[in-house]
Amino acid sequence: MEQHLQELINKIPTGLLIGDTWREGSAGETFDVLNPATEEKLTTLASATPEDAIAALDAACHVQDQWAHTPPRERAEILRRAYDLITDRSEEFATLMTLEMGKPLAESRGEVVYGAEFLRWFSEETVRDYGRYQPTPEGKNQILVKHKPVGPCLLITPWNFPLAMATRKAGAAIAAGCTMILKPARLTPLTAQYFAQTMLDAGLPAGVLNVVASATASAVSDPLLADSRLRKLSFTGSTPVGKALLKSAAQNVLRTSMELGGNAPFIVFEDANIDEAIEGAMGAKMRNMGEACTAANRFLVHESRAEEFSTKLATKIANLKTGNGLNPDTTCGPLIEQKAVDSIHELVQDALDRGAQALVGGYPQDGPGYFYQPTVLINVPHDARVIQEEIFGPVAPIITFSTEEEAIQLANNTEYGLASYVYTTDTSRALRTLDRLEVGMTGLNIGIMSNAAAPFGGVKHSGLGREGAAEGIAEYTYTQYIGIKDPYAS
Ligand code: NAD
Q1: For the Aldehyde dehydrogenase domain, which residue ranges apply (predicted)?
Q2: Catalytic residue ranges
Q3: pTM, 2 dp
Q4: I need a surface site. Which of 133, 159, 219, 443 has the fewest CB within 10 A?
Q5: Is the pLDDT of residue 490 over 80?
């Protein structure tokens, strides 16, 4: 590894953050973190055991009450300092993300801006989490409504947005006055480790944020979900794991926020501006190598525009440059691991076997590194697995429709309901379509819509709750109602 990269890696704490100390795991176990572009080892981290997880909860519980009563302004200023520090360290964060996750450096820089923005947004919201005081309708007594922090939280994050998924949860929890245990994904823990150190540098009191990376996720989640002191689970990841965690969370009737998988339709109506739709499609499909829960999974294109759309999309996608994300000319990095390459190729092969054609790509690329050639598939049967399942890779399957009704039926024909995209220049059609789509989010004539000030989340099997925006803080508070006797009554 080049010297400046090694120096960066050497700065990252390798232990578990419990209370005020980065420490070894209680069993001395470790796991390696790899670079998916080269398959080389980056470093070795401590792996948390169930005992470590409970020690992290002890630390969180120890300061929960004090933290809940820390003035909102103080909590806000810590978040704001953390925003400034991440911005100062943006090149280090971006490089770290590209090293452990693979995305091109330009996209990592974009994630630093997006991820840091959650801290700035929540710092601004911390002082505005209002309750209310009002008379009862008959005017006799008074109603006092307070928002209180739910208590210690377990935050479980995925590998695809290593910084933003951590700040989106931790920023809201800090704003609400909760303490937390963050369990980052095994594949990309380094960004979370550096994020936690940055929070300490910004003045976050010890114990508010504890970080327990582990080779075995359930070694952390099982004991914590069984412990009645934990009050909330916020999870971002796949739907099957989310469902299993929801069952475990039922033991202690936890508050849960679940950001799960997606199968986003990208609808292009006959009146769409195709060049704008292509630009949107490149963002919605190819950002993060397609490894995004919001990624366009199915392109539904009106039959009269399908050839034009497919040809233009294939031309753009053929121009992508696959390679190590640290190379400045790379526009599509590696996938996260070999398993991802294999499962994406299975989906593509299934579509080809059922009669689809690849306009570009359609095969993995030789290593080292876990690369898949960006792919456009046409004539894909509706029952192909690539249409039914979350692809999580740089593969764009295109299917056609002939009526607005058919487009909406196809779009809703999935168990998921996270993101969707609609391209049309007809306002009435846009409003009709938005009204009928069963999703948490729609990009209307835009291909990238995530924003710290917007409520992010899904319906159906895509999840519960919202992250970002004022809704994001509400996920970490509970409402307490106090009925007050008529102050004029004798
Ligand atoms: P994953 O479900 O495999 O892992 C997510 C996290 O859960 C990781 O930290 C992992 O270590 C942990 N985990 C895995 N098994 C566990 C278990 N049995 N008990 C407790 N924790 C466990 O998902 P992934 O592969 O890291 O991420 C990709 C998935 O995440 C995709 O389905 C994607 O759509 C989804 N995602 C959703 C959003 C959203 O906001 N809706 C955002 C990003 C990713």
Answers
A1: 22-481
A2: 259
A3: 0.98
A4: 133
A5: no
